[in-house]
Each structure stands twice: as C-alpha cells, then as structure tokens.
Amino acid sequence: MKLKIILTILILALIISGGYGFYLYAWDPSEKVSVNEDELTNAGFLKDKRAVLFFSTTADQDSNDGGTSYAMFVDEKGQANSIKMDGLELGNITKSTSQVFIEDKNRIQLIGEKYKTVHLKKSQYTGERSGYLPGKDLFFSIYNTGFNKKGGYDSDVRYGNANGFKTGTIPSYLVSSGVEGDNVYVLANDQTKPKEFELKEVILDNEFSLKDLAKVETPSEVAAESEVLADQNYFYVIMGAAKDDHNKDDLLIRVNKQTKKQDIFPLVHYAGVNDVIETIVFNVRQSAYIFKDELYFVDGLGDVYTFNTKSEQIQKKFSFVDADQTKVGYNEQVYFQDDRVYYFRFNPKSEKYTIDVYSLLTGKQESQQEITGIKEVMNQVQKRGKSIYSYGFMMLSK
What's phi and psi for 33, nearest 5 deg? Predict the structure, then answer.
C-alpha cells in the first residue's frame, strides 16, 4: 500500500513538474502582442492602425533558415502588435490607399480590404526598396540579390498586385533608389569604379525594362546617404564623403533632367566629430524629402537641413529633441508625410519607444506617443540568441 502511495505521489509530481516545465518553455510573452490569422485577414484590420514598423535579423543570421522578421502594427493608442515572418535584411513596407504591403525573403502579404498572400520560389536576403505606383496599381520591391553564376551582379525586382506578381532583374549593384509618382529610379555602380554611377529608370509594365537617364561622377569615393529624389527639372541624391574617422562632407548631387548637367552642393560639413559613423542616416531609403521647393534631409545626429530648390540656399532648419548622438541609430527611423516628419526612436534615457511628430515648416515638436509591445518581442528575440533591427517605418494615419 505504501509503495502504491509513493508511486502515485511520484507520478503526480512528475506530471506537475513536467506540465510546469512545458508552461515555462512554451509561453512566450511576445504572444500577448501577436496578431492572429483571423485578425490579419479581416478587411477592417487597418482601420485603427496608425503606423507600421519592420524589424528583421541580418542576412548572416539567416543560415539554416534561422532568420526572423516582424511587421509591427501600431494602433491609435500606441499598442504595437506583431506579425512574425522569415527574415529579410533591409526589408521594407509600403502602402496603397487600401492595403499595406509586407514581405519576408520568400513571401508577400497584402493586408487590408482584400487579404492576399503570395509565395515566391526564389528567396531574397537583402532588400533595397519597396513602393507603390498608384497610376499602375502596382506594388514593387527591389533587392540587392548578389553575384550571379557569370560573375556579374543582379538586383532582382518583384512587382504586381492581388492578381499576381512578376519578376525582373537589374544587372547591377545598387547604391540608392527612389520612387516619384509612377517612376522608379535606381543609382547603379560598378564596384571597380567607385566614383562613377549610372542613374536608370526601372519601367514596370507588362514587359520589364530599364532606361538609362544620366551618368553621375563624384570627386572622391562616396556612400549614399539618401534615396533618389526628383522634381520637375532635376534628380537629386545625397552622398557622404568621409575624409577620416572624424571629418566628413555630405554632398547634394543634382542632375538636370534635360541637359544631364551635374552640380554638387556642400550640404553638411562635419569637422572633428567623435566618429563619422554617428552621422550616417537612420535609413538611406527614407532620409530626404521634397516639399514646397524645399529639400529636407535628416542626418544620423537628428539634425534637419534644407536646400531650397529655387534659390539654392542651404540651412540647418531644426534638430530633433534629445536625439541620441552617441551611436548608430539601429532603432531609429524617420518618415515624411505632407508638412510633417515622424521620428520613431528608442530613448535610452526613458527606455521607451516613441513616435515624435515635427512640423517641417516651424521645426517644432507637435506631439509624442509612447509605443508599447515592442520590448516583449525584442526580449524574446534576444533570448533566442538573435538580434533584430528596424529597417522600415511608415505612418498609416496622422
């Protein structure tokens, strides 16, 4: 009898401890802030969403398919809820009037009025740009794909909508890109000629094609600090030329659309800074913007500079309040919309994620909203021995 009681107690103890152990292992705090499939496919999912962010592991963490990414949708109350996907370093997000486009290395999801998921045969590991062409009702993504079997470099393109996606290839390494209306631009470079670039238009129609626009030359080796911008008369791109670890010039390159004449303007001069790495923009694909004849540029220190496209006057317009200037902003992003710039950041002093809103016209901070739900995801990713970084940020409402 005693033996039976002892065995019963041992079995119960094992069941209880086993169950408790499973609970500890299986419960993931990030599940509290995850989007379930029913919510995601609901036509009204975006109605209360204010912003969307994209985080991913880097390509080197994706060995054995171990990469992870998250699209985090922020509601009007500041709560972020996440969609977990496979990894895509430098992946991005974009939107139409009724849908949001998110992706990982081998899948596209269109979220909104009509939910659509598209699986693709070829995996991509490094993004370049995503966008939407309203006149053609096309979403697109460009990738820095890598070297091909012939030794050349490929940058693949996916483009389409809920009816299906096509693919194309740009046979070049890309240093920058941009979209203006229904026009997609890329700045290509032969890495053996670091001072020479080719500006091209990517034409996304029934047939994929490329159009040469202009050649760009720089006086020294440079790195892109902005997307390709365009107005009625010119193309613009900002390039950084580092002299050493403490001195650097950010140059605004302007190319006349008709004559192809090139002008270079000294936009920002950094002298004796702690480390020029700190000045690198938060996101080269979202660091500049043209609004009412002013080209706005946000550098990695949180300073906002302007170039008047008519008078060619350059000035430091304003600075973000309490911007962290001590390191590269891995979890900092900006997004321009109408006459405002939105600044997503993690503040190490308050240990909070926020979206700060600034007026481009006055430079004043208009509001700040704390974002909750991101820390839970970050903590769980770190526990798995991985690191994720913010690569995309977009406002869905004001």
Answer: -115, 30
